[in-house]
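Project standup — Tuesday

K.O.: blocked on the structure for the chain from last sprint. Re-posting the sequence here as requested.
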Amino acid sequence: MWSGYHEIPYYYCDATDYGSDPRDDTNNPNPGGGGGGSGNGDGTSPDDTPITVLIPPGEECENPPPGDLNGDCKLDAYEVCLLQGNSKEVCECVADRGTVEECLQDIKCERLNRLVQTDGLGSDILPVVNQLRTKLGAGNNEWSMSYKNVWSEEGRKNVTDDDGLQEGPSDERSPFNYTTTWIGQIHSHPEGKLAVPSWLDIRALKLLHTESYDVFNDEVFIMVVAPNNITYALRVDNIQTLIDKIDADMQNAKGNNDDEKRKYIKEEMREDYSNSSNLEKTFLELFGDYGISFYEATDATLSNWKQLELDENDNETVTETPCN
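H.V.: unblocked you, prediction finished:
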C-alpha cells in the first residue's frame, strides 16, 4: 500500500431492480417491479472480487449540502441545475457547455422537430394535425390524439394512441391519457373558441409530466391545432413552478369542489381574453411565469416552430425565437 493512502473495496453491481420498468408500455399507474439477476452462462455467479480504489488523504465530507450527489461537500453546475427543478438531460447539457436557458431551448426545439419527422425516432404528427384541421369548423366539439412512448426498432419513440382520434364531450374539452408512458396530446380548438392554449391545457401538461416516468419528462407536450394553419405547443421548463402555480390557482378559486373551481378559473380567463387584442400576449401575461415554454408554428407543414416570450425590456411586445 502506498504511504498516506488507504484502500476501500468497491463492487460493481451488474443488475438493479428499480421497482418499475420504463420499457413497460402498459397504462398501469402503479406498475410492479421485477427482480433482476445475472450469471456467467455456466451456472456460476459473476466474479464479485472487490476492486481496490486508492483514496488520497484528506478530510471526509461529514455534512454534504442538499443536492450534493457525489459527497464532495460542494455543488457543481449539474447538481445546482437539478436543484432548480430541471431534468437530467437539461442538466447534462448545462454541465457540458451551456446555460439553463440555452439548453432548455435546444432540447425543446429538438423534441418539437422530432415530433414532425417521418423517419427514425420521428413521430410523423403532420397527418394527425391535418386530420384535426378538418374538425375546426364552428360548432364542432374538440377532438384529440394522445401519444405514448414505446420501444421500436430505432429505439424509444412517441407514437399515437391505438384508439386513434377521440371526440371530446364539448367544444372546450377533449380526452387525454396520462400515466407512466403517456407523454403528450394534440387537440383542436374549433372556430369561435380561443385559439391559444387554455388553463386546462396547462393543467393537462402538469398531469402528463408528473404522472409519466421521469425518463420521459423531456418528451412531454401539449399541442393545440387552431384555424388558419396556426399550431401551438406547450413544454415544461420547471415542473415545481408549474405545480405550485396550478395548486395556487385551485386554492384561490371560488367553488365548493374542484369542478366548480375549474369552471371559475375558466370564466376568469375568458374575461381576461375578452378585452385582449393580442391573444398570445395575453396568454404570456397570464401564464408566462408558470414554468412553461410556449411555441407556435404558422405554416401548414409545422416547419417553422418558434418560441414566444414577452420582451424583457418591453412587456407589450412578444418576441419570437426561431427553432434551428
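K.O.: great, moving the ticket to review. Residues 125-322 form one domain. The CA atoms of residues 64 and 73 lie 4 Å apart.
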